[in-house]
Amino acid sequence: MSTRGPAPLEIVPCALSVVVFETLDSGAVDAAVLPIENSLHGSVAEHYDLLLEHDVTVVGEWLLRVRHNLIAAPGVRLEDLRQVMSHPVALSQCRRWLREHPVIAAVPFYDTAGSVKHLMHAGLRDSAGIAPELAARQYGAEVLVAGIEDHHENYTRFLILEKPSAAAPPDANKLSLAFSVEHRPGTLLAALEAFRSAGLNLTSIESRPVPGSPWEYVFFVDLRFDDPAKLDEALHSLRACCQMVKELGRYRAAG
Predict the structure, then answer these.
(1) Top-confidence residue, 127 or 167
(2) How far apart are alpha carbons 219 and 192 in whole angstroms?
(3) Which residues participate in catalysis according to the annotation?
(4) What is the CATH topology of the domain spanning 69-145?
(5) Which of 57, 102, 154, 206 could tie 249 with a disulfide, CB 3.0–4.6 Å?
(6) Alpha-carbon dihedral angle through residues 243, 174, 33, 169, given to the nearest 10 degrees
């Protein structure tokens, strides 16, 4: 019997979301993790578009409790600050705190932890970042104010992506899919009726515009199911009334 543990995971960072998909497409990585929605900010629209464009499968989801902290160099006081940097999504989740401190300008930055790294390396004494506490420990900074997000029930939902495989996991109870309908009265209602008739519970629905076809949309839905046979029946009905149906993945729901 081998006494060796599992091989350590190698994390491959990507600066752009499209690069995440390209790296997975190329086979350079086995899986990818991508945020798809936040309970305060809403959906990440670009990522829905990329899911449709690339040949990947959703194999799981993960819910992360997000806590945003105001972080600055050691010795910097709140009254010293003139700007706060962070990813635009993080800034949007801290609007209330930013409104309460109008003298501090919100400056978009490419990354939450990266904002702390930047202010420490640049020696900025009038700036702070909004980032996880780990970023303060990693770069030798200090947390000035903890938990400045608008609501403490702040979660980000991540999708776990892989190249398409032959079968869904046996314990799958959630499906993500995309579909489009003809641009005429009643077509969306007919599509949604396929889910209702099968007793399936839609947990989310999003729409994205179709490039080159103004006022036409692709709909992305997540739904829960208990019986795969009923799900397949609903999908058969859906395909009969839709222009396009693409399963994005069957997987076990996170909660």
Answers:
(1) 127
(2) 11
(3) 156, 158
(4) D-Maltodextrin-Binding Protein; domain 2 (3.40.190)
(5) 57
(6) -110
Rounded to whole angstroms, how far apart are CA atoms 255 and 155? 12
What is each CA distance from 36 to 78, 98, 178, in whole angstroms? 33, 25, 14
- Domain extents for the chain? 17-64+156-251, 69-145
Q: Compute the average pLDDT of residues 169-179.
A: 94
Q: Within the chain, where are the H helices?
A: 17-26, 45-53, 88-92, 95-100, 112-122, 133-139, 187-197, 228-241
Q: Is 6's pLDDT higher than 70?
A: no
Architecture of domain 17-64+156-251: 2-Layer Sandwich (3.30)
The overall average pLDDT reported for the chain is 92
Question: What's the CA gap between 122 and 180, in Å, rounded?
Answer: 49
What does the pLDDT look like over 111-163, one tens digit per residue? 899 999 999 999 999 999 999 999 999 999 999 999 999 998 999 999 999 99
Torsional sign, CA 110, 115, 119, 121 = negative
